[in-house]
Amino acid sequence: MEGEARQLIVMPASLEDVRIKRLPSRAYYIADFISEEEEQVLLKKIETAPKPRWKQLSRRRLQTWPSDLNKDTLLDSPLPTWLTEPVISRLLSYQMSVEDGEKSKKLVPNHVLINEYLPGQGIMPHKDGAAYYPVVCTVSLGASICLDIYGSKEDGAVEDQPRWRILQEPRSLLITAGELYTDYLHGIAEVNEYVDLNPTTVSNWELLRSPDEIVNGKLERRTRTSLTYRHVIKVSKLGAKLGIFGKR
Ligand SMILES: O=C(O)CCC(=O)C(=O)O
Ligand SMILES: [Fe+2]
């Protein structure tokens, strides 16, 4: 806006500078990934999406863009511009280093899940599964939330207590990949307030923008919306789906 100081987004020089070193390989946390203005634009777009876009679950509501998967397959369709700009172009500047093994192939996220959690809401510990390339980029909007990371027991059941806790502040980006994607589970506790948040219990404490907002280890939950950017591996073209071109 005229005359108003605009926030400048300064990207870390290297992803390694923002790696959460206490976690298994690999997670990265960037506190100021988008500006306050960009956050407001995104929240407005999400709020004004046509009502049938929302799917109400018992413990959160969500939107899926461009559409739900069918048998782990995405029907080829572009994402709307408000979801690609500025987030995807900013993400692409990092991706090379996330996908160390892959020969400089840039995988553009083709799917976005939007989750909204009110205080007391959450998501059970889970793995994201084989439909996606194992890199997840999550942008947080509106308020802070904790993502808990769980291991599995020998019989495959999820451990009772999380091993680590990542605090995601509004406007931050969290990238998870590798073992953290394939071997561990993640979840969000259904609580109204966090307690015991401190440099020992929060794995990304050193990378937080505002650790001072945590008073006596406590942080009250407010509505938090997340954008989860992923790359669905199997994509089907509309023609193939409808079978209109037949077999040759
Ligand atoms: O909202 C989040 O940050 C987590 C969402 C999630 O784990 C998922 O949708 O698979
Ligand atoms: Fe997940």
UniProtKB/TrEMBL annotation:
Subcellular location: Nucleus
Tagged with keyword Iron: yes
Transmembrane segments: none
InterPro entries reported in the protein's UniProt record: AlkB-like, AlkB-like_sf, ALKBH6, Oxoglu/Fe-dep_dioxygenase_dom
Domain Fe2OG dioxygenase: 108-233
Pfam (any one): 2OG-FeII_Oxy_2
Protein family membership: Belongs to the alkB family.
Name of the protein in its database record: Fe2OG dioxygenase domain-containing protein
